[in-house]
Amino acid sequence: MRSILFLSLLVLSMSACVSQKEYDELKEKLAFYENEVVEADEVSNELRELQESNQEKELQLQETLKDLEQLTATNLSLNRSYQELLDKYDRYEQQNKEIRTTTAYEKLSLQEQLAAQQSELDSRQQNLSSLEYEIYERGAKLNNIQSEYQNVKGDLMDRERRIRELEAMLNIKEDKMAQVRDRLAEVLYNISSDDLTVEEKNGRLYLSLSQDLLFKTGSKSVDYKGKKALEQVADVLNQNTDIDVIVEGHTDTKGSASANWDLSVERAAAVAKVLVSYKVDPKRITASGRGFYAPVASNSTADGRAKNRRTEIILSPKLDELYNLLSPPRQ
Fold this sequence. Notes:
The protein is of the alpha+beta class. Helices cover about 70% and strands about 10% of the residues.
């Protein structure tokens, strides 16, 4: 259950760093693991109930066996009495008709008792056979349930193992992003904090570059100073090929929404092209424009508008291996 709790926390912690579709898939998988745990508990409860029922049947069987032994002893005793009366009947038959009549009556009475005892013995034997068969069936069912329980237990152990692997992989990726953050701080140390900020949020690195660092006012082409900064960023990216890159362009509210949106897209694409020119694999890069719809400061002041005129390079670890670990094993 601790593994399922951790997975829940993991899904919550990753909700801000993956797309909605990926987040929904993670939630569905979490629900799948929780349902598996509930089913395992139900199987365990049913197994315990069957074991208790089996114990009751075994006690009944022991009591029946005791009754059978007592009836068998009684039957043997009656048979001996019957034989003794037959002998007595043969010795005194000629001497006394009355004794013979009495003996015949006793013989008949004993025969009736013996027949009744035999009938009861047969009935008890039949009940014993029924109980033995019922115990056999319950034992077979118990074996099947135990086998199913072992299978479910094995599946849960396998999932716990994969969750531990997931934790280890997440720790590795967190360490990797910390190393990338430190390396970026090293290579971009000479750039003013007004033109460059590096922030880590939800497992991602947000590298925010001001317009003044990359572009001249109104320009869509990266200038020389901006290319030198992007060259340092590209060098770090080329050393860490397991990181995806999103380039987002942002503007202030001066001008129309349409013009600002176009400008933000074109500037994001220009930055992406510069990174590609420095050997960053284009398959890793996604360029998009946000216009003035994602400000980081108020557009009512010149300082705030300057902060909003920026390009963000968002770095996030590849999650393909994590998704593979979270996917249910194929049957």
